[in-house]
Design brief:
heterotrimer; A alpha+beta (132); B alpha+beta (635); C alpha+beta (84); A: alpha+beta; Alpha-Beta Plaits; 2 domains; two-stranded antiparallel sheet; globular; B: 635 residues; alpha+beta; Aldehyde Ferredoxin Oxidoreductase,  A, domain 1; Aldehyde Ferredoxin Oxidoreductase Protein, subunit A, domain 2; Aldehyde Ferredoxin Oxidoreductase Protein, subunit A, domain 3; 3 domains; 6-stranded mixed beta sheet; 4-stranded mixed beta sheet; 26 helices; 18 strands; 13% strand
Amino acid sequence: MMLIDESICTGCRTCEFACALQQKKSFHYDFSLIRIRKNKAEEGFFLVTVCRHCPSAPCLAACPVEAIGKDSQSGIVTIDPQKCTGCGQCVDACPWQAPVLSSNDGFANICDLCKGDPLCVKFCQPGALRLL
Amino acid sequence: MYAYAGKILHVDLTAEKVREEPLSQERVKKLMGGRGVNAALLFELTKPGIDPLGEENILLFGTGALSGTCAPSSGRMTITAKGPATNLYLKSSVGGHFAPELKFAGYDYLVIHGKARRPVYLWIQDEKVTIRDASHLWGKDVPDTDELIQEELKNDRVETAGIGPAGENLVKFAAIMIGHNSAGRGGLGAVMGAKKLKAVAVQGHKPVEVARPELFKNLSLRALQTLAGFEGRKGLSLYGTAGLVPIRNEMQLFPVKNFQEDHLEGAYQFSGQYLAEKGYLKNRFGCSACGTSCHRFTTVDEGKYKGSKSGGPEYETVAAFGGGCKVIDTEAILKANELCNRYGMDTISTGSVIQWAMECREKEVLDAEGVNLTWGNGEAIVELVRRIAFRQDIGDLLAEGVKRAAEKVGHDSWKWAIHVKGLEQSRAEVRARKGYALALAVNPRGPDHLCSQVYAEDGATPEARALIKKICGSEKYATHVMPEKRGAIVRWHEDCYAATDALGLCTFVTLSRGYLIDPKMMTEFYAHATGTEVSEEELLEVGHRIVTLEKAFNVREGATRKDDTLAWRFMNEPIRSGPRRGMTTPQKELDLMLDEYYELHGWDRATGWPKKETLESLGLEKVAEELARFGKIPR
Amino acid sequence: MALSLKLKYFVPFDQLMGKTESLPVEDGSSVQDLLATLAAKYAGFSQASLKRHLIILLNGTLCTQDEKLSDGDEISILTPQLGG
């Protein structure tokens, strides 16, 4: 799973560009499955919104069409695009609201951990993103 | 078009008209991006002799060729105009996240023409441009303005470049702020204020495409490894630029009391190390794609300035307010920094003008009502920042900058007005650093605390010595107290810095102390981004062309060799103490360095004007014709 | 004959080695020899000294590692810093 330390995120957004490059081979924040935003409640700090592939994964139970699964070995959570209806329940269930509803087709997308070797972690110099 | 958005946006505030121009392949080939294209457009679209605060001046925002990608530290933007402080060419470089967003909005360049009739701000979203009323924003400080614009546009992803009261009040060193980052030098904020342009807000959805995504990714990772291998980067991350204070102080080359002294007991109390140790530092900020994140977020949680919070302070800020004014009061310095950021004012010039005023008081030629201008008075600095931004009392005099203020005050106060070409100088001791001195003297925009760094000249590391050997032919020139070969050293760095700025890279990853992303790697980034191969020679030639264009602008404005000079203090008053006691950089030495520098450039020795064949060899025939029209080609 | 030196350590070395130290070294020693002595004395310093990027001041001025030392010399050890 992903270990995130928001307190040391500097808002450089390199991870968003790395993810966009990985996902869509070009650069825009919208292509990224990790999102960095200013923390409005705490000035000077940032919020890191990305699927943590957490052990509890409340999104699984929340999905009405069982489109979300968790690999028993790798722990990676995935959303089946064939089954997803874009209802958004997974977003509500997730403590970080991590799933991204695509502006194109409306379906939910989450970080796939780059199949186990996440690029954002490689690019994160402050060390706010780590793979456990 | 790979890497580039492909368009220049022209906004005429007088006619309230908007026009798009394609970014031509030819322009890109000659000038690459950022600072380069800005310089060409400024030269082409203005006439000599215009008022920098008048309708005819233009204001250019130029993104780097690599901006909007994961190339390390690639989000730098150059803002260019004719400068109010110098009446010459002005560029200022700034970080933050504006450059990528301007590209996403569809434009590599934004050119502001004319002057609005009432306060306005620009809203540029996905190639749609609106000129919006800003009368409700006029008078507000920068953070409040940013917030109000986001609320009004119902869009919290907007990036803003704007001014505070200092720009509105035409302070000669008003800055354009991008969040906490400052395009500080030379009064660009006043140019914007004179145009009644409060802010430019951008947001867009057009992605930046690169020609070879996989190779670009691998190169970026390799570049990160290169950066991580240099010890100095850790210090930059941990302590920010203000981490430089203890080194300079220990070397007794840390300017104190308006360059009267070179060491300050207690300077540690405004160092980056101290700010981290004592908990003033709460977080670090990173510009676009920069994990080094040298920018600071500091707060004052107790005492007189409780509640103060801001981006920064940088080395130059603490050196100006702390060292320069001999103030050890950490919290007063943090407060002064905050106010400068809120009001949108350059901390280098603000600190410069205050220490000049303190020396005036010391020499009994100036006093201020209600402000005690004694050295070391932290409260005075904070009060003066306010008065300058709002042009109150002595603030009105100081808001004009040291050159004009000294002309008004008279006596001998020009002798301690530390500026070049009318722009206040940053805190570097140039009586002992000859290459740095030359670079400050010749820079077309006035002293440039980033692009004048020629650290290799001190031979402090094996890499530095190797570079000096490459440039000068021998390691014996790797010492900063010798004037010989400085022309060659400055020439090499100039071209690299210009290429850095054209690509949108931060000078801290290409040159500065580390020399990390070298010209070869820059060409690789450019090739993988755009699909166009360039050689190292071509890259440095682009840099050379940019530097020459900037010079040509000044020549057309009437600048000559006499403008490439240093403050009187550095040429006539020796360092008073420490291992470099007795040193000056006298006119004779400066002349030696200028002669070599001009020779290497192919410029006329007497006037500093570029020769016709020099301009033609760089493909600047039209520039040569234009200069000939004004009688500025040497015979 | 030993040379008596005054050493000043800056961040991050001061956390490991204290702020100052008086250290005798052999006559004829160079800065490089001194660094080797320090690396042997302080395990945490050996890494840094092996990295080429140290800023060494000899009596307040920058020096290279092959510089020869004299009795009473003051040596400051810092890491390079970027700034402006």
